[in-house]
Specification:
The chain is of the alpha+beta class. It has 5 helices and 4 strands; from the N terminus they run ααααββββα. Helices cover 39% and strands 32% of the residues. It has a 4-stranded antiparallel β-sheet, with no helix packed on it. The radius of gyration is 17 Å and the shape is globular. It starts with a helix and ends with a helix.
């Protein structure tokens, strides 16, 4: 986790700072959390509102979609953002390539629309 945060810090971009603020909510390392918060505050990049209220993000639903030949599957995770907005994450797992994450997509629509 520290290596990832350092790489994102070196990028110095608004989107990477937003990801670092999400990591702060997930990390159990207090020193890392404090370092990220201080670094992001120093840059003064405006973060999306849902990032600032990440503690209000709630899982909504999840499902798996399997390929007909079992070559892989997609994991679909639906979450509710603050303000009752939908965010869905699709992770494509490919078995032919050694059971790796091949691709990911993010959709800002309800899970039923993604499916």
């Amino acid at each position: 986790m520290p290596e990832l945060c350092n790489a994102l810090d070196r990028a110095g971009l608004r989107p990477t700072d937003a990801w670092r603020l999400v990591i702060v909510q997930l990390a159990g390392d207090t020193a890392l959390q404090e370092r990220i918060r201080a670094s992001v505050a120093h840059r003064s990049h405006a973060a999306p509102g849902w990032v600032l209220r990440f503690d209000q993000v709630r899982p909504d639903r999840s499902t798996e979609l399997h390929h007909v030949l079992r070559d892989g599957y997609k994991v679909v995770i639906g979450v509710l953002l603050p303000g009752n907005r939908d965010l869905d994450i699709v992770v494509d797992i490919n078995h032919n390539m050694g059971t790796i994450v091949k691709d990911t997509c993010v959709f800002g629509v309800p899970l039923r629309e993604v499916l």
